[in-house]
Amino acid sequence: MDHRNGFTLPTMVSEDSHRPGPHRQDASPIGQAQLLHRYPSDHSITPEELVVVSWNLAKPRTEQAFAQVEELSSDHQAQLLAFQESTQSLRLPEHLGSHFVRSHGVHGVTSAASVQPTTAEGIASRSRELRVATRKMALITTYPLPDGRSVLLANVHALNFDRHGRRFTQQMQDLAWRIKEHSGPILFCGDFNTWNSGRLQTLWGVVQSMGLIEIEPSKGSGRRGHAGALGNRILGVDTEMHLDRLFQRGMELLEAHWLEDYDISDHVPLLARLKILD
To answer: How confident is the model at residue 210, as a pLDDT?
Structure first.
C-alpha cells in the first residue's frame, strides 16, 4: 500500500497485475484502482441533475492541457468525469476526487467524482494491442444514491488495432459480463474506437444486451482528427464515425452535446445532463 498525506492509497494497478477478462483479483472494494485525489464528500450523487463528461485527453503533457481539464471540470460542474489516456499527474478542482488505473507507462483511465465511490475496480482486456503491446483498461466505479441504490460508471478505453474486431468483441463482452451484475442505473462511456460499422454493430449488440440506450449529442461534432489515408484504408477506417460514445440505463436525458472549445486533444469532450429515474 502507498501512504500519502496521512491517508492510505491502494497500490496502482499495472497492465500485467490483472488476471485477464472478467476474472478479477479478489480485493477490497477499492483495491484495484489507485486513489489519486481525495474525495471532498462522502455524500450521495444528486439524482435530479447528474452531469457527466467523457473525454480522451490524448496523453496530456502541457500546462495548457492541465488548464483545460481544470476549466472543463469547474465550468460545467460535472459530478462525474471519465478520462481516457489520462495521467497520474492530472490536476482537478477541489470539488472532485479521482481513481486511476494504468494501461501503459504513466497513462491510463481516470474516473473523477464529487462524491466518494463505494467500489472502484480496474479491468484489463484479455488481449494486447497488436498482440504484443499494451492491454486496454476499463475502470468501473459505483456511487451512492440517496435512496440506497448506486449508479455505476464504466469508463472504457477499447482495443483499437483489430481490423476484424474479434479481440474488441471479447473485451466488450467481458465488460458486459461484469456490468450486468449491477441492478441500478448505469453509465457506460469512453473511447470505444468504433471506426467502422462492424465494430459499432458489435458494441450496439453488447449494450442492448444490458438494456442500455445511446446518448445522442444534439450539437457539435465528436471528430477532430484521424489517421492518414493509407492507414485508414489498411484498417478500414470510416473517418465520419465517432469513436467516443456514452450509453445509459435508468435515466432521462436532459441535454447532451460535444464541447468543441476544448482543443488539447484530437478527441472532443462529450457532456450529458441526466435525471436518474426512481
So the answer is: 96
Whole-structure pTM value:
0.85
For residue 46, what are the contacts with CB-CB under 8 A and spacing of at least 6? 79
Other beta carbons less than 10 A from residue 161's beta carbon: 14
pLDDT tens-digit profile of 193-218?
888 888 899 999 999 999 999 999 98
Rounded to the nearest 5°, which phi and psi values hold at 266?
-85, 5
Residue 27 has pLDDT above 70, yes or no: no
Domains located in the chain, CATH noted: 2-276 (3.60.10.10)
For residue 175, which phi and psi values (nearest 5 degrees)?
Answer: -65, -40
